[in-house]
Batch of 2 targets.
Target 1
Amino acid sequence: MRCHQHFDTEAVAVCVSCGRGVCRGCQQPTLDQRMLCGLPQCAALAKKQAAVPFVIAQDCANRATYSKTLVQTLRGITLILAVPSVLLEIILLVTAALRPQAAMADSIVLAGLGIILILLAGVTWRFQSQLSLLQNNWEDLAGEFGSGAVDEPPAST
Ligand SMILES: [Zn+2]
Ligand SMILES: [Zn+2]
């Protein structure tokens, strides 16, 4: 392929916008290391395209932050639910083991309540771990778009 302006010079790159070949002297790298031919309409288009990944990166970063807050809240709820109920179960088990005849209806109700709370904690924990995966996804996406590493093929037909 030859340069679109110098027909005797071999092209070293292709314009990401119009797909024309450009020589060493004509090529104009964009901020995100893509090549342009130097025509004003192509420069304008590249600017517009560069703005899109930035918006997406911002959006992904926002979602990641939101998920992170939610994950932390859910972890807190899980701890609040699980720690006292596990302690309660241990205390009930110990007292039941020490004095089996003293196991009253009250402690059975308490034990049941503790188990329900532990199950609830299990649900919130599962929810936060799924959300945590989602958060990682958003962070990856934000990084991907933010670095401008999106390799779009030149729009040549
Ligand atoms: Zn061009
Ligand atoms: Zn040239």
Target 2
Amino acid sequence: MTPSLPTRLADAAESGRVVSRREVLAAVGGAAAVSWSRADARPMADATGDTSVQVRVYSGSLPLRIRLRSAVAGSDGWPPALRDALGAVDDALEQVRDYARERSRLESPDLRVERGGSVRLARSAVQRPSDVVVPSFEAVLDGFHRRLRERDALTGSTCHLLLCWEPLNYRVGYGGTLSPNAHVGDDADGTSGDALTVANVGASERWDSRDVTRNMAIHETLHTFLSADVVEAVGGSPCDHDLGEAVRVDDETLRISPMASAYAGREEIGAGTRFHGTGCYDHSAFHRHGGTEGVENWTYTTDLSEATLEGVTRYLERTAGP
Ligand SMILES: [Zn+2]
């Protein structure tokens, strides 16, 4: 790896998606379709409104020192950072289930989180010479997609979350998604309805904290359950990040929810997450934002904002609708 540290570690992938969203606002995240699950040969939702969606979480290749430490600790091969990331995603979906149930929506939401094992990325068809040193986000996602196809793991209604360990890969940044596999159940272009997303646990662990790792794992997962039209209907802005919130706890402290993570701080090194996201955001359009004036401390909560809960619930209702 090049000794020069990334000058800007951020949502490289999201940047690609969001820039195109800015350019063609309404074109991205368009019609989600009811998709069929190959695994059980039934529609993603039946007439009673049942919703069956999986989030399958995979570990990417881990550095030797991390693997050794996990082995010594007698764990199951997943270091604490990955287990915590997976647990955070599980907790986030639990919040969605509770939110929907309390409002008698999504009658039988079957939102499951499960481990998908370890994956060594396949060589990507989009790989360029420069990708050998620092793989591009496109190459990572393509290699991931190829492995999933090889394993026959695509079901039509699954979010596949790759927890990778690339602390110096500024092209992957904190992670993200890319069209055409950016939304669960969106089979509009015939690509199966599975969504692929990446959370760079190595980056958040190296540059930030375990709290940021948890939040970014949730953040990158929920991108696949939030399309621009649903987000705009809920929050008045098509940007997923604006559904997040940054709440003043005291004069110097902001508490940041998952969708706002990497976007709630000032656009400078260390004002919030170490690196600021490069995707869309507008603090004045956030669900709640207390401002960054005088803020020196940044804390993170895995509690989803109400706007995020509403957005994901609406997305699932529409995706699972008749
Ligand atoms: Zn994002």
